[in-house]
Amino acid sequence: MTGWKEMKRDELERQFSPSQWSHRMAADEVIQAHRASLTEGTQKARTVAQTLFNVPYGEGEGERVDVYVPSSPPPDLPLVIYIHGGYWQFLSKEESGFMAVPLVPRGIAVVAVDYDIAPKGNMDLMVSQVRRSVASIVQQYANISGVYLCGHSAGAQLAAMVLCTDWSQYNVTPNIKGAFLVSGVYDLLPIISTYVNDPLKMTKEDALRNSPGQLVSQLKTFSAGCEIVVAVAQHDSPEFRRQSLEYFKVLRKSVAIQRSMQVPFIEAAESLFLVSQALKSSGLKVSFEDVPNTDHFNVIEQLVDEDYYLTQLLLKMIRRGAGAPGISV
How far, in Å, CA of 302 to CA of 101, rounded? Predict the structure, then answer.
């Protein structure tokens, strides 16, 4: 495929239009169905969990979270923080509680984060807000056994930026044990020239400063013990798929350089499975998941289903990280 720098604007915009690549329905239909699916899942979540709505993490009107808690929470409570997608300009926490449906009955709390989407919020503000939301949640709930981030699309970029945070300025160090980064954008430079940037108004400097692919050394410094899953849909666009794989590879390369003596075969590994095993043995727990028969939208929608592959993967991660008897996986 032609590199993004050689693409004409119309092709670049098509690459960053996930609805154009769905195998299930037309572009307008898949967007409407996505919002409806997330809303339905969130409404169901509110029937299976104790809920706290609009809990502030800052003074801004948009700086609120919704909290979904088990009716009988275990003494050590695993916490999943979900950061919604929507290209930094759509959706909100009101459609973002759906993961509570399979998780809360298993003794896991879920938090859905709001942030100021564009044009009200810019990229620097959004990154600051999600970081502050994590710090605030951890400070408010002392019995958290571990924090697990999950972000979709734009939310995956924001979750990855959380992993790069120097927490010393927040007077707290969240115990982030895992992160699910689903169909994310890890290099913001290509979108500067697309319609996506119209409300964001990012400069090149803004994009570089907020691109997780540029901040791997910070991630390794501040989230060294975190287990990371980089997931992408089979029917994501080639550019979305490239970004997910390249982000995984840059994590791999970073470890390969640093640990070349301990893991001499990592650069030669052709299998993603072997690469993942190499990363685990080196101390950085990273894996790549190419999720079959999914598009950009239902790859995250299906996390409402306890039998979905990524749901089971998340539950296993939490079981490994939390070790809490109250979790049923």
Answer: 11
**Single-letter amino acid code for the residue at 280:** K
Phi, psi (5° rounding) for residue 260?
A: -60, -30
CA 111/CA 81 separation, integer angstroms: 5
Q: How many of the other CB atoms lie within 10 Å of CB of 122?
A: 18
> Is residue 295 predicted with pLDDT exceeding 60?
yes
Query: For residues 286 and 57, what is the distance between their CA atoms, to the nearest angstrom?
Result: 30
**Both tokens assigned to 261:** 């003596």
Q: Which residues are CB-neighbours of 152 under 8 A, at least 6 positions away?
A: 83, 84, 85, 182, 183, 184, 299, 300
Strands (E), the chain: 50-56, 64-69, 77-83, 109-113, 144-152, 176-182, 227-233, 285-291
Position 172, amino acid: V
Confidence of residue 270 (pLDDT cuts 50, 70, 90): very low
Distance CA 209, CA 139 (A): 27
pLDDT grade for 278, boundaries at 50, 70 and 90: very low
Distance between CA atoms of residues 231 and 229, nearest Å: 6
Is 251 buried (19+), middle (13-18) or exposed (0-12) by CB count in 10 A? buried
Q: Residue 196: which residues within 8 A CB-CB, separation 6 or more?
A: 16, 87, 88, 89
Of 54-63, 99-108, 255-264, the range with the lowest mean pLDDT is: 255-264
Helix, strand or coil, per DSSP, at residue 41 = helix
Residues annotated as catalytic (active site), given as ranges = 153, 236, 296
Phi (first) and psi of residue 168, to 5 degrees: -60, -30
How do the residues of the chain divide into helix, strand and coil, expressed in percent and rounded to 5?
45, 15, 35
| Confidence (pLDDT) at 172 | 93
The pLDDT mean for the chain works out to 90
| DSSP H or E segment with residue 209 | helix 204-209
Q: 46-68 pLDDT, tens per residue? A: 999 999 999 999 999 999 999 99
